[in-house]
Design goal:
This protein has about 450 residues and is an alpha/beta fold. It is built from 17 helices and 11 strands. Helix 16 (about 410-420) links the parallel strand 10 (about 395-400) and strand 11 (about 420-425). The radius of gyration is 22 Å and the shape is globular.
Amino acid sequence: MAEQAASATAPQTETPVRHTIRARHEFRGMRTAEHYFTVPLDHFAQEGSGAAPETITVFAREYVSAAHTEAAAQELPWLLFLQGGPGGRGNRLNSLGGWSKAAAKDFRILMLDQRGTGLSSPIDRNTLPLRGTAEAQAAYLGHFRAASIVADAELIRAALGSGPWSIYGQSYGGFCALTYLSFAPAGLKEALITGGLGTLAGTADDVYRATFQRVAERNAEYFGWYPEDRLTVEWIAGHLRRTAEFLPDGGRLTVERFQMVGSFLGGNTRVDGLHYLLEDAFTQTADGNRLSDGFLEQVQGIVSRLANPLYALLHESIYGQGQATDWAAWRVLQEYPQFHPDAEPLLLTGEMVYPWYFEQDPALQPLRQVAHLLAAKTDWTPLYDGAQLAVNSVPIAAAVYRNDIYVDRGLSLETAAAVRGLQVWETADFHHDGIADDGEAIFGRLLGLVRSAATSAGA
């Protein structure tokens, strides 16, 4: 049911990757190319069955600054960007800006749609049932964790004719970078990580205990800035307890689903957007005060997993190693009654995933049985190789955000100490979405750290 990265740190299959470029475009100061790769579903399958291995498609879009001539661009080294998630497709850039503007000065950027996302054999409520039973669907999803993403990247790197390349991992992309350093370090020239030093040996329970504490602190900070929003949140919660309100997709907006708007709290650049959302909450109707259509439409975009069900299905598995995660966030929540939907004052939550998601979200209801099978899965393979990380020789630098509510500072620093040569830039100037705030400066600082380390090592 799972990828076999524990017993084999390198892919076992030798199926050559098929690579095609279907379109090229130039606009707004950049050139793009759309790359499609055909890769094995199971990189770690043991040979000898005689059957042709099943394959999937992985998509990546190349971005190059038009400031480089086409000939010069061909000589630029590659930078692979690993997006956050799990379940998040690669960014669709309309122009080069922030970190991508900085990176495009020296790199060809490869924006990967990690397997199961975007145009990479996408997984959703329509495609997953094609696998058959819930058990078959759960087995299929066992091939969509970080070790398989890294194996895809290595095949893609070879198909592009690249030597060891640079990688940049944001959030979950940083977790993938640590897996890369564990199982395929020879493919890397250098690694940059922002808000993504996951715990190497800790459990999902450890992660959520730290997360709930951080989110509680962030609630207090936010309502200190916007005390009037405390009243609005209580008004909305009381209204939802008394009155049935429905989102545009037909799903009911419950108090616990409303608490999910706390996702705004995880950033510098978007935290104030929570205030703008809340001020749209009510409108006067013939039936009295009701939640406005504008508010409900915005909330649906926050609480629905229609576009990225993998996030809900695999979120806890990114911490799963050798044991069941067993709905860790839901279990740990019981230790923090201040987050209960009946609590007063009501606190908003963050990235946690709960079993009721698969009951209340229409997009997830067809996947409920699969989700429970994944939560009960006990044979998750290791995501990291601690021994390899302890002797790491790849230059690596990571931004650790001191007040990050999604990736805990303390756990991040424990991980940093376990990776040889990892340089930490710790800052309180940003939250989890730092690269959306000042990505150009953050990228430049991290790249400077790894380049200085490489220079020192070669001296």
